[in-house]
Write a structure and sequence with these properties.
The chain has one domain (2-280). It is built from four helices and 15 strands. It has helices at residues 2-23, 99-104, 160-176, 259-266; strands at residues 43-49, 53-62, 65-73, 79-85, 109-116, 119-127, 136-144, 147-153, 185-187, 190-192, 201-205, 209-218, 227-237, 242-245, 269-280.
């Protein structure tokens, strides 16, 4: 629904601009970044890259500055992989005698599906320090999804045995003041536990509002022709990513391995490499 509404807004902007262009014939020899060039051109483009694929519009607001607004999202299917069931770690402990734990130990690896869920609307200002040259600095905001990846088991509702076993472990910890780790599926140094519905439902969560800084080459609005090409490289600052359950409870790292925790500790920004093809409407 959000994407459909945004698409309608984009079409309204484009149609309105084309109407203005039809009523006001422009000088075909004017310069793109002329001093009186406020909104005197409009281009629509498609782009793809590490932040996803989408559509945007660009207009000049100053002889050295253009503004670009659009939508970008990641659109592809599930990534499936096998994960280790941590119930095996309880072999040799008194807990292994519990029926729920023993049942959980019967499955050593379980399939999970990771589905990217990264979409954003953005508003960016591009500064061209060398007048009409193609090099530019870019700054602005991405605003959109707070969930970067959604993890879920592929067999819906089939992990009730993990839920039961983990409850036994948590009860045991409370009763005997022990610190056994949860029973669930291992992802690096994190353990994803099943919910009461027998599912793994975990999201990698980031900020909704994400500042952007970058540089680029090429033209988002063509000067002499209709088509233009641009390449942009930058960082989307999305905060410190966290793994959370479906009740928004954060999953704490065990701290025993360096892998995923170490990556998340410095991954406060998502790299964005974007390739764009644009068409100048007027």
């Amino acid at each position: 629904m959000k994407i459909k509404i945004f698409t309608l807004i984009m079409l309204a902007v484009i149609l309105g601009a084309m109407n203005v262009a039809a009523q006001n014939e422009t000088d075909k020899n004017d310069k793109l970044y002329s001093p009186d060039g406020l909104f005197n051109h409009l281009s629509i483009g498609i782009h793809t890259g590490l932040s996803g694929s989408g559509i945007d519009v660009t207009m000049p607001v100053h002889r050295l500055v253009t503004v670009r607004a659009g939508y970008s999202g990641v659109h592809f299917g599930d990534i499936k992989f096998k994960t280790i069931n941590t119930a095996e770690d309880y072999a040799g402990y008194a807990l292994v005698e519990d029926d729920a734990v023993r049942r959980a130990q019967m499955s050593d690896k379980i399939e999970l599906a990771a589905k990217p869920n990264f979409w954003n609307m953005f508003l960016l200002a591009e500064i061209h320090p060398f007048n009409n040259e193609s090099f530019h600095f870019t700054a602005g905001l991405y605003i959109g999804s707070k969930n970067f990846i959604h993890f879920r088991n592929t067999n819906d509702g089939a992990l009730d045995f993990l839920y039961d076993a983990n409850n036994k472990v948590m009860d045991y910890n409370r009763t005997f003041n022990t610190q056994f780790s949860p029973i669930g599926l291992k992802f690096g140094d994190y353990i994803f536990t099943a919910d009461e519905n027998g599912n793994i439902d975990v999201r990698m969560k980031t900020n909704v509002v994400k500042p952007y800084l970058g540089i680029g080459v090429g033209k988002h609005i063509a000067q002499k022709h209709r088509l233009s090409f641009a390449l942009d490289l930058g960082l989307i600052f999305w905060g410190s990513p966290k793994f959370v359950l479906n009740n928004d409870k954060e999953i704490k790292s065990s701290g025993k391995e360096a892998g995923v925790t170490q990556v998340l500790s410095w991954l406060n920004a998502w790299p964005s490499l974007q390739v764009k093809l644009a068409y100048k409407i007027f």
